[in-house]
Structures are given as structure tokens and as C-alpha cells.
Amino acid sequence: MQNTLTRQVLPTQFWVLVGFFLFAFPLSSFAQAFDLTVAQDGTGNYTTVQAAINAAPAGRTTPFTIFIKNGTYRERVTIPVNKPFLQLTGESVANTRITYNQANVPSFPGNTSTVIINASDITAVNITFENFWGESPQALAMYTTGDRIAFKNCRFLGGQDTVQLNSQVGNRNYFKDCYIDGVVDFIFGAGRGVFENCIIYARTRRDGGNGGYITAANTQPGQPYGFVFRNCLIPENRGTTTYTLGRPWQNDLGSTPTDRSHTKVVWLNTTMGSSIKPAGWQVWDAGTVTSVIQYAEYKSRDFSGNLVNISQRVPWSIQLADADTMNYTRAAVLGNWNPCSVLPNFCTSTPAPIAVSNFLALKGTATAPSTLQWNISWPIGGVQYQLFRSSVRRGTYAPVYTTTSTVATNINFGTTDPIPAPGTTYYYYVRASKAGLATHVTDTLQVSSMPTILTTGSFQAFLQGGSQPSAAQNILVSGENLMAGLVITPSANFQVSVNGGSTWASSAILTPSANGIVASTTLSVRLNAASVGTYTGSLGLTSTGAATVSLSLNGTAQAAALPQSFPLLWWPMARTNQDSAAVRSSAVTGSIPTFRKFVISSGSAAATIPPYSTRYGQAFAPTADGGWTTALGGPGGNLNRTYYEQFTVTPNGTTPVRVDSVSFTAYVTGSTSNTKMAVVWSRSGFAADSADVSGGTGPGGMLPGTANAGFTTPVFLGTQAAYRLAFAGASGMTLQAGQRLTFRVYFSCGSTTTTTRFATLKNVLVKGEAQVITGTRRAASTRLQLYPNPATAEALLVHPVATQETTITIYSPMGQRVATIFCPVGSQQTLLDLQHLASGQYLVRYSNGTTQFTAKLIKQ
Fold this sequence. Notes:
By secondary structure, the protein is mainly β. Helices cover 2% and strands 39% of the residues. β51 (676-682) and β52 form a beta hairpin. It is globular and about 85 Å long. InterPro entries: Filamin/ABP280_repeat-like, Ig-like_fold, Pectin_lyas_fold, Pectin_lyase_fold/virulence, Pectinesterase_cat, Secre_tail.
């Protein structure tokens, strides 16, 4: 082939090293007969990869072959443990893509990988595995747990944590002539991996981060090998992000000597440039024990073929001698498994294909053009790149930029282009070609100036009672490229507010900025009908040239006033787990929550978190020092119905008690790895019934149906935040004399460290209404209620729903303002910190800009 580089090279010459990356199975290798064929156009046995895997026989001891024709397969694929010896062959690596966009976010806190390989003896050739979520959070393209898994001529595209080799028993993985890219820890895990002649592309970060890490191995103690990179290339990125070769996952402050990883990563004959930091490697944190880490290099070279300056490498890393390299041959690392035998010529390199990666279009502004960037996966000189543009997706495209790579090391390309005029869109693709090689045409991207209205959230049924409007529900509204105002119009009898409920109207207009942007705005909606009845309709959002957005509205207006909600039981959790007698309603009995399989924090130096504190509240975990792994007897990252804290609400007389909601502040200290929370309740002590809470609010407002604190739809905990959850819809439930409400709060945590991870609960407040008689409600004597009063360190103020203008101010007897608190929009209770106040009487004033209420407070 014209201008292709050979693989027969000398180890001291850069061009020789580049030759290792020129490979691809020739078309003649596809002449074999395959057991199954996957084709999106219906010309094969199946149209999805997962369907073919499902059809493959279980328990094979000889290869079962699956051919995947060119196509973009947007699916998540799992090869189960009972399907060994599968061989997947793509028609071409540039055009056979298995891709998905799942990330470790609150709505999906599980395994995010596009492809999961749990079986052993799996081979993949000429396939791109991709997770195109972005640069963070964790979003895997490949996750392996089996043994003897081999890849050749494959691409792995991702951001954070692209490839995980998850086995912790030395299971083996082999990557031959592959391309792997990412930005953070993008090759990680506890398994054993050999990477031969691979391109490891540490990309320039788009999220503004100025640093990254290539590997994050957590090699387990006693394992002789972790990751070994042989004759690999780390190309230069675009110059604004620098990387270390690795950092030691699970060798940190939270690790103990028994579970601390003994990370092992070795780079042999690697070509690298200024994208790699002079220090080469780094610790995880101040608790890293470097004496158990083996970070090593052998003859790392720059792009001129000179040995890399290692004078600034961390002192605990190793530079190997010639004799040491015998310990890192393919056979030494992989033992009795020879991946070269899985297919003919599997370990023989052939000319590299043209494969464009990371094609990106970033829209500019009125004063700056759009930016279009891409890189080639395997370095090849003499490739021509043409950027094509059209104003119609299926219209006529014309080249707007052409360039040719002069040398193979030029892998990053890009240009700029003016943004489209208002109301129009530009569509782009890149065509990469060279005589003698197959041309690669990328997906089509768009840069749009079309007016667009965006919304986040939906509405549940509204309930209006008496002469009062319903409670407000919120969504987020924004706009892009708008040429006129964003008009918001609800159906008759519904009202909207764009200022947090300070003013309400039958319609509203959001005015875009000069560049057509309406920033994300909280839009409140309520039902305020003049007569009793059922109401349905929609909320319309319109703007000139934009597609109309319509959201369903429905609600009921009843003659009877809505039930009022007051505190029944409050567990502050600051000093003990006893509820507050001062707040407790006279209609219910006091109670102390109980654990099952959770224990309170020991508060030791290893635990670091006290069992009770004003900062965290109550701290607990499966172990007293904060461990959650299944090896320690915990649930790990999955909720388990045997791990919970249980609370009870019991009427103490003959008068019914209505219970509607529970609120609390929750958090898992030191981790966001599968930190889930759910609440389930029962009237029979879970003997004959069980029900999930019916949703509520969290730090971002209304909880979505996919993460509403139900057991199978748990909340994903991040920072310390308050949640309010409804037990049984808006009306709640009524407990008759002799009945009891039992609710359980479940937690999980996927962190594999053995200390310092604690579930925390603070200010657990059950609300409802005592003395319920014939459906009427007890009248509230005041709009503000303080519990306890007198108070010592803190008091809970129950107040009307806070708007954007709401403040709480505390005044001394002399009229001096001693404290001001700004209430979160939608809150109905605020905890007042009184520790800085002297003993005496104070005045507490609640103001929402239009009305105000006051209450007396006594500080003891």
C-alpha cells in the first residue's frame, strides 16, 4: 500500500515504533464461514449484537463465531458468564460501532458500561466500543470480569473510566494493535492486562480540567502483574491537558493494610511527548503507601527517538534494566494462555486503517466562530481530511476545509467556521482518505441557530381545597437561539409564576438575551379554579420559529379545605436517636428507631465520623468504622432489604392521626459510588403489606419517577441534602387507634474502602395532622410554630411555604437584628441555630415580601 510504514523496526527509532500501529485484518480473513451474522439492514441473522449473543449456545469449549457488519449499533451488550468462546468480528473497525451513552448519574447509579464481558475465552476483532456520554462522570465503554479475553484492532472511546479490567483474581486480558482514549483513569481495574502496540490517546479535556491520569490500576496484594504496556504510543494531544502514567486506585486514606491495592503498571519501549508530566506518576492522596506500588518504565522515548528525561520522575518509581524486561514478555505475564492462537495471524500486525475519532463541533458566538476538531486513531502520514458542510441534513454538501497530514505524528486536526444565521442549521462531516486505504466518513454533526425551547420535569395531579390555590409544582425552562420572547400559557384555571411564587398570572413571558438565550428558569404552576370540579389542560411554551412545547396539566378543586400538615415526631439525631419530646404531638407516642444490620459509628480515629453530631446527625454503616463491601458483610452498592433503619409512628389515644410525609437530611460521607437511599412503609410492621413512598422533593426540586426514593427507583445521594417524601400521595394515610405506621430507610454504598463511609440522617421529621375528626382539620393557632420553645442550641421553625423572597430574621428584645436566614424556595421548615445567642427572649419574623408573621422565642 502506498506510503504505509513497516512494522520491522529498530527499538531506538521513532518511525520504527509507529510501524507497530499499522494493522488491520485483510478482507480475505473474512472469507471464513461465521456461525451468525449481525446486520442492521436485515441481511444477517439478527439486527442487534445482543440478540446474536442471546442466540449463541452456552457452555461452549470451542469458538462460536459472530460476524458484525458495518453499522452503528446503539445498544448495551452483555456476554454472560455461561457464554464462553464467543468470537466477535467486525466488518471494519472504523464503521462497526457498538455505542451507548450511559453514565454514573443519579438516574442510573449502576454499571454504566456499553459492553460487559463476564464470560471467559472471548475474542473481539475490528470493533469500536464507545460510551459517548462525555468526560465525566464515570461512563465505561468496556468492562471485563472473565479470563482470557483478547482484543485486536479495536477502538475504545470514552471519557472517565473508558476500560475496566475488573477481575480481582489475576484474570487475563490482551489488547493487540488497539486504540484507547479518555481523560480520567481511562484504563483501570484489578485485572491483568497486556497492551501490545497500542495507541493510548490521553485527550485534551473539554471540561476545563488541566490534568488527567491514564491508568488507575488497583492490583490486589499477591498478584504478580497488573497492567503491562509493550511498544505503545502516547500521542501528543492539543496541548492544554497533561497527564501522569498512573495513580493507585484504592491505595489511599480510606484503605487499610489488608485491602490496600499493590498497584503494578509497567511501560516498556513507550513513545510519549510533553502530554506526560515530568513526574510521570502520582499518589492517590496523602494516605497512599508508595512502598507497595510498582510503577516502572523501560526506555521511554520522545518523538525524536531520544530517551525521555526522567530526572523529575517520582523517586519511588522504577527504571528497568535490560535484564528486567524478560519478566514482562507476553508469555511471562499471561502464563499458560497464548492469545496468538485464538485466530490465525492474531499477533501479526498489518497496515493500519483510517479511523477518525472524537469528531466534535462546538458552536461559536456572534463574535467568535464555531470550532470543529477531530483526531485520527492510528497515526498515518499522507491522509487527506475534508470537512463538508450543508444547510440541509440530506442536502448537498460541499467541502469548506481541506488539509493533508504531512507526517504520521500529526494526529490532531481542526478548523473554524462561522455560526449559522439565526433560524438555520449547519451540518458537518469529515471525510478521511488516502490511496490504497479504505476511506472513513464520520457521523454528521450539527451546529444549530434554530430557536429551541427546553424543559426539564413534568407535573403530577394538582389538588386545590377550599378557597386556597393548590400547592405549586416546578419545572425548569430554558431557550436557545430565540428570536422573540418565550411565551408561557397554561390552560384556564391554572396559573404560572416565574419569580418563585411571589406573583401569579394567567401567562408569562421570558425575554431572551441579545444572543437568544433564556437561562434555566424555575417555572411554578398551580391550580386556582373559581369553582369545584376536575380540570385538564396543558402548559404551552412558544417562541417565534421554535417548536411548541406542550406539557399536560390536570387537577381537582374540592370544596373542603386541604388538610394541614404539622410536625408529629422529630428526631434531631444531633446527640441521641431519641425523638424530641418538645416537638412530639400529644396524639402520638415517643419512639426510638432501630437498626437491622447497620451499626452506629464507633467514632474512632479510623472511623473519623462521630456517632452523633450537629454537622452530620446520626452516622451508621454495616461496620462500626464505615465499611460497606460484601466481604465485610455489607450490601455494597445495591440496596438490600435486610439493611435499614426503622422508625414507628403510633397514635396514643382513640383519635385518628393522619400521616402524610417524612423529611430528613441524608448523605453518605466520603463517597458517591452507588450511594443509594430508599424509603418503604407498612401498616402491619411489614407482616402483611409494604409500599414505597410516592415521591417528593430533593435538592433539585421534584424527584423524577426514575429516582423517587422507591426501593427499585432509589435516590442517588451526592452532597448532604434535604428530602421530603410523601407516604401515600398528597392526602397521606389515617392511622386509627391501635394502628401503627412503620417505615424503613435503606442505604447502599459501592465504595470498596473499609472505613470512613457512613450513611447519615439528620432532622427526621414526620408530619401530618392529629385529632382528625370526621374529615375536618384542626385549626392552626398561628402561622409560625417553634419546637422546642424554650430552646437551648437549636429550634425548628415551621412556617408557610417559602418563596424566592422569603427571609427569617431574629431580633433581640432591644430590636437589634441578630440573625438573618434565607429560606430555600418551597421549604416549610427551617432549623434555627441558637448557639451564638445569649439567654433571653427574642422575636422571630418570617417575611415573604408581601406578608409577614412573628413568634416569640425563649433561648435558655
